[in-house]
Amino acid sequence: MKSGKMVKITFLGTGGGRVVVINQLRATGGWILEMDDQMFHIDPGPGALARAREYGVPLRKVTGIIISHPHPDHYADAEMVVEAMTIGVNKKRGVIIGGKNVIKGGEKHRAVFSPYHLNAVERYEILEPGKETKTSNIKIRATPVKHGDSEGVGFVFEGERNRIGYTSDGEYFDGQEKYFTNCDVLVINCLRPRGDSWPEHMDSEQAKELIVKTRPKAAVLKHFGTKMLRGVAEKEAAWIEKETGIRTIAARDGMVLEIKNEKIEISKSGGKGGGSLEGFLK
């Protein structure tokens, strides 16, 4: 890939799984991708507004809200992010992109956005696996997932010079790697450590397999359940890096990652994040 403009990723939360989410043991505000003069808020879950304020992210500058599937830990603050993006619903701007059930709802989950909020943006679009769209000069491609929501998707963001992948939730499946080749950064939702898998979610052994087959310049693990806390996520990331030779980072709440002139740097390491673990990890 060519060298060029800076890409910036800010993690407004790195938690996943019900216990972590409802107790905010790690924050769950999603993540921000700034690339080629666009700012996307991806999977703005519970606390997205509060974490954006805490970490200095001006949501009024968001140009797109991207949601992988309609589980609350991925969308709970989405309508309020629409209101921030549209300056209090005073300016019709920005896009909403999501899987089918995000926009229309499904058998188990309601649609994420009210008609009022859909009408507040310039456009909204359903993106099915394997399909792509474009906003400004960035291509956004939806990837299939193996997860509880049958219409859920991951994403690949391809700008003028950089390519960022996001698995969303789901366990590894044969052929998943073909969607995430040539990524500068691959963001992986990794709920559990190796040897402790959970159906329809990635563990670090599966994450390692995906990383081996895709060979990104760097991989970032997030969406941690309780068993990945107390330093376990960092140990699993170090193990993956040793096994694969690919730089692998366990994200922390508030961490900022930047791509400058093809160099991937952590400009802010993030804090410890979250509440007390007592009673949860005995």
What does this structure look like?
The chain is an alpha/beta fold. It has one domain (7-262): Metallo-beta-lactamase, Chain A. 19% of the residues lie in helices and 29% in strands. An eight-stranded mixed β-sheet has the order 6-5-4-3-2-1-15-16. Helix 3 (78-85) links the parallel strand 4 (64-67) and strand 5. Helix 6 runs parallel beside helix 7 (232-244). The longest helix has 13 residues, at 232-244.
Strand order of the largest sheet: 6-5-4-3-2-1-15-16
Contiguous low-pLDDT stretches (5 residues minimum) are: none
The dominant shape is globular
Question: Order of SSEs, N→C?
Answer: EHEEHEHEHHEEEEEEEHEHEEE
Number of E-state strands = 16
- Mean pLDDT metric: 94
In helices, the fraction of residues equals 10-25%
Classify the beta-strand content into a percent band.
Answer: 25-35%
How many separate structural domains?
1
Structural class: alpha/beta
